[in-house]
Design a protein that fits this description.
- By secondary structure, the chain is α+β, with helices and mostly antiparallel strands.
- It has helices at 18-29, 40-51, 66-70, and strands at residues 2-5, 8-11, 14-17, 34-37, 58-61.
- The strands form two sheets. The chain has a three-stranded antiparallel beta sheet with strand order 1-2-3.
- The longest helix is centred in the first third of the chain and has 12 residues, at 18-29.
- The radius of gyration is 14 Å and the shape is globular.
């Protein structure tokens, strides 16, 4: 772990932000199916946590229309 600035860590070329990890932990405990946001770093972190088997949430990017994300026509 290498400290970058207060509340941010660099882990194997990944930036970890303390508040993002808190929100993801809360979503995991609540068994949320999706996290909604527009932060590409949070999406990458969530993908990493999913790959490690630490959570199972999907990231819903608010810049992508919901019908595209869920694969619906309308």
């Amino acid at each position: 772990f290498e400290a970058r600035k207060k509340g941010v860590l660099l882990l194997e070329n990944r930036v970890l932000i303390r508040n993002d990890t808190k929100i993801m932990a809360q979503a995991h405990v609540a068994k949320a199916s999706h996290l909604v946001g527009r932060d590409n770093n949070a999406a990458k972190l969530l993908k990493f946590l999913n790959e490690q088997g630490l959570t199972a949430c999907s990231f819903l990017d608010i810049s992508v229309p919901p019908n595209e994300f869920f694969g619906e026509l309308f």
